[in-house]
Request: fold
Amino acid sequence: MEVRPHRKINRKKTKEIKVGNIIVGGNSPISVQSMTNTLTTDIKGTISQIHSLEEAGADIVRVSCPDEDSTKALKNIIKEVSAPIVADIHFHYKRAIEAAEAGASCLRINPGNIGTKDRVLEVIKAAKDNNCSVRIGVNAGSLDKDLLEKYKEPCPEALVESAQRNIKILEDNNFFNFKISVKSSDIFLTVKAYKKLSEICSYPLHLGVTEAGGLFSGSIKSSIGIGQLLMEGIGDTIRVSLSSDPVDEVKAGYEILKSLGIRSRGVNIISCPSCARQAFPVIETVKELEKKLAHIKKPINLSIIGCVVNGPGEAAQTDIGLTGGGQDSNLLYLSGIPHTKVPSSKIIDKVVELVEKKVKEKK
Reply:
């Protein structure tokens, strides 16, 4: 379904970079990222998890490289997956060099934490030689000591100053193939930092509320923070950080993008909370449909409304709509036009059949 004019988001134009075969920034689609939580040295387990993330729609996957054994494993992992791999590096410059040489598409580093100027130069050279981009990852939980002394606590100004320092290191060494994040677990701090950074630089921004929490609370916090920034046209790639299965991060990311009409993947179900007017069990029906339609990747808008109060209006705006009717005569709509009546016992099978048929027509 096309984005309505009143929901059009004017996205800020940023510099375009490449993370493997994925373009980030410019006019490219906002990409969805996640990170593995397996031991990287568990090659089979890590490959399996990346495949699951790819199936869920992850455009880019980050893998932790805390030691030499992990960077050695990285080379074998990259051979078996399709998604570009970001190597997560902290402090040790040799891990960054090894990861670039192993085929990582991007290095997540803080250049200021790498060490001496010579070490930074070696990392930049490895990135250039191996066509590897960089993500400057600023986090409120690991700011430089002098910045904490200057500002007394993590604040937007401290995060942005840290980002500027790291930007200057890369620019001074003639390296411009990078994106930036300024994350915090605090929504207000995160949003303010990204807004300030967006005003002063044109590099692509990776959005996220770090350490957001569990599936339920973390998804809500991330939706508020990431969603607010996206609505203002800020952001080129996102990660929803959850204490949950990494696949949930990808699903939540797409739900945020779908809700804003930015990017669609799979079935978007519009459903009512149910009430005494419902003509069929709405909540149970939606739960079952989510399971049976989880394999659909093409964007489809589906409305499941329990009565005729809002049902016809929602059906007029969706590819397939269902409105509850009296005496077990629920009405199915196709592209806003009444199609057929269906008894409550047949709703799930009929809706699944129509969605799958619609997907085939879109191919």
Observations:
- The longest strand covers residues 133-139.
- The two ends are 15 Å apart (CA to CA).
- The chain has two domains: 5-259, 267-362.
- Residues 5-259 form a domain with the TIM Barrel fold (CATH 3.20.20.20).
